[in-house]
Write a structure and sequence with these properties.
- The structure is a single chain.
- It is built from three helices and nine strands.
- The chain is mainly β.
- It has an eight-stranded antiparallel beta barrel.
- A hairpin with a 5-residue loop joins strand 2 and strand 3.
- The protein is globular, with a radius of gyration of 15 Å.
- The relative contact order is 0.26.
């Protein structure tokens, strides 16, 4: 099973470096369970993806099982209405910094003004050993209010 091991931080003012790869992402949730399991649709540029994430049963908080499958346009179009009321749009900037690949998300629409940065790791030990650079803001790994599924359904967290 593919594992996702990541940490997430808030991000203040952000100017993407010239080397950043930019992707426009539309994301909607078909199902969200109380245990954090989610079924989502994503349109990233010309690709359409169905994804399922759930907490890895024997792992720590930042570790989840993630399975994704490419969808045909027709399949995506048929499923997209099921995400009504549970959607978000963001620009993602991917680049290398501080010895890791970072994913900076700049949210749009009702979530405008929110910026986050995520770092994925190959192991829990790497995640635990990571020292966030000064330009990262507060860590929000595991904070429900900052999970994309919560942002898509409830909007911006209260300050």
């Amino acid at each position: 099973m593919p594992l996702e091991i990541e940490r997430k931080f808030l991000l203040g003012a952000f100017e993407p470096p010239e080397t950043a790869v930019r992707q426009h992402i539309e994301q909607g949730y078909i199902a969200i369970k109380d245990d954090g399991t989610e079924v989502r649709l994503r349109r990233i540029g010309g690709s359409r993806v169905l994804g399922v994430k759930r907490k890895a049963s024997s792992a720590g908080a930042p570790v989840r099982i993630e399975v994704e499958r490419e969808l045909e346009e027709r399949e995506f179009t048929e499923l997209w209405p099921a995400t009504e009321g549970a959607r978000l749009v963001k620009e993602r900037y991917t680049f290398d910094a501080s010895g890791v690949t970072v994913y900076a998300d700049v949210y749009q629409g009702e979530l405008a003004g929110l910026r986050t940065v995520e770092v994925e790791f190959g192991s829990e030990a790497e995640a635990a050993a990571f020292s966030a650079p000064e330009w990262f803001g507060a860590e929000v790994t595991g904070v429900k209010a900052y999970k994309n599924q919560t942002l898509a359904t409830r909007g911006l967290p209260d300050s």
